[in-house]
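Following up on my earlier thread - several people asked me to post the actual chain instead of describing it. Fair enough. Here it is, all 414 residues.
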Amino acid sequence: MSKLLNPKRTVAELKELRALTGDDNGAQRVAFTPMWVKTRAWLRKKLEALPVEIHTDAAGNLWSTLRGESEKSLLIGGHMDSVPNGGWLDGCLNVMAGVEILRRISAQYSGKPPVTVRLVDWADEEGARFGKSLFGSSACSGNLDMDEARGLKDKDGIRLPDALNEVGINFDRVKDSGKELKNAAAYLELHIEQGPVLLDLDLPLGAVLGTFGVERHAITFHGQAAHSGSTPMNRRKDAFLAAAKMSPFIYSLAEQHGGVCTIGSCTTKPGIVTSVVEECRITLDQRHLDKAKLERLYWDARDASEQFAEDANAEVSWERLWQIAPRPFNDDLIALCDESIRETCGKSHRLPSGPLHDAAEVARAGVPTVMMFVQSLHGLSHNKIEDTKEEHLELCVTAFDKLAEKAMTWMKSR
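Reply from S.P.:
Thanks for posting it. Predicted structure:
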C-alpha cells in the first residue's frame, strides 16, 4: 500500500458522515432534500482541501477534476444519496474512497498526474423519492426519458422538475451534462455488494463482470367471479389458480438458465373470501447478464403462462413495465480489477451485479467500465443493519487505489 494512501481516514470520514446524516433508523440522504444538500456541502469541504476544480453539472452531478498531463480522463464515481432508512455505506463508500484516491494521486504526482482524474457524485442514483433510479447518470449518458421523468411526482405530489428547481437544477437542460463524458477513457466504481455471494465465499472483494439486464412485466390472469360455495371445482375459471402455478415455475427457470426471477406482488379481484378469483395480477422481475438467456427466461415464462391459463379455464395478458439490456463491463478493466484484488488480499472472485448502478449508464454511453465489490455482512443493503467489516473497508480502498493506478497506465497505452 502506498504510504500516501490512508484507508483508515476513509472509514473515519464514513463514520463522520453517518453521524451527520443518519439517525436510529439509518441513513437519510434522500436526493434533492435538505439533508442531501447538507451532505453535498460536507463533501465539498473535503474536496476543497485538494487542488481540484469543483462544479455541478446541468443534471446536478458534482464533479471534482484533478487536471493531468493528458486530457484523457479517468472517472471514479459513486453517489451520496441514500434510500430512506438506508445503510451507512451504500453509495457514499464509492465517493469517499474516491476522495482518498484523489489525495494519493495529487500527492504522488505533485498535483499533475499523467492523465486527468475526475471524481463524480451522481445525483439521485437511488430514485427513492420519485421512483426513477440513475437520474443523474442517465441524464449524462443521454438515455433519460424526459417525458417520463417530467411526469414523476413524490408522495406529497411534488413534481420532479419542481424539486430540481428548488436545488438549482433546470430540468429541461439536464442532458447538457453529457459533455462531461467528452474525454472519458475509463470509469471505475466501488460498491458494497448488497448481496451474500462474497459473504458465502468468505471473500472480502470481487471483480464485477457487468450489471444484469432486466425484463419486468405485469401478468394478469382473467377468470370469472363465482360463488365459492355453489360453484363445483370443475366449473371454475380461477385466475388465482393460474397465477399460483407461476411461482414454482419461475424458480425452475432460474435453475435452468441462471439469473434470477422474482414475483414481487400479487393482487386479486374481487378479493373476498366468498368468491372465486376473477382477476389476478402478478409482477415478474427477471434478470440475467447474458442477453440470450434473459430472452429465454422471458419467453419460457410467457409460454408457461399461456398453458397455466388454459389449465385454469382462464386467459392471460402481459404488460411490459420496464426493460434494460445487460451491461457487460470492459474485459481489460475486469482483469485489472481482478489483479488489484489478488495483490491486496490474495484471492478474488468474478461475479455479476444484480442491482443496477450508475456504472451501467456510463458503460451504456460507451466508456470502458468496471466495478469492484466489497463484502456485505448479512448480505443486506437498503436496511439500517447494512454493514461491512472495517478491515474489508480498508482493503477495498487499497485495492481500488491499485486499480486506479493500473487504469491510468492502461489508458496511456491506448
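The domain at 7-211+326-412 is CATH 3.40.630.10 (Aminopeptidase). That should answer part of your original question.
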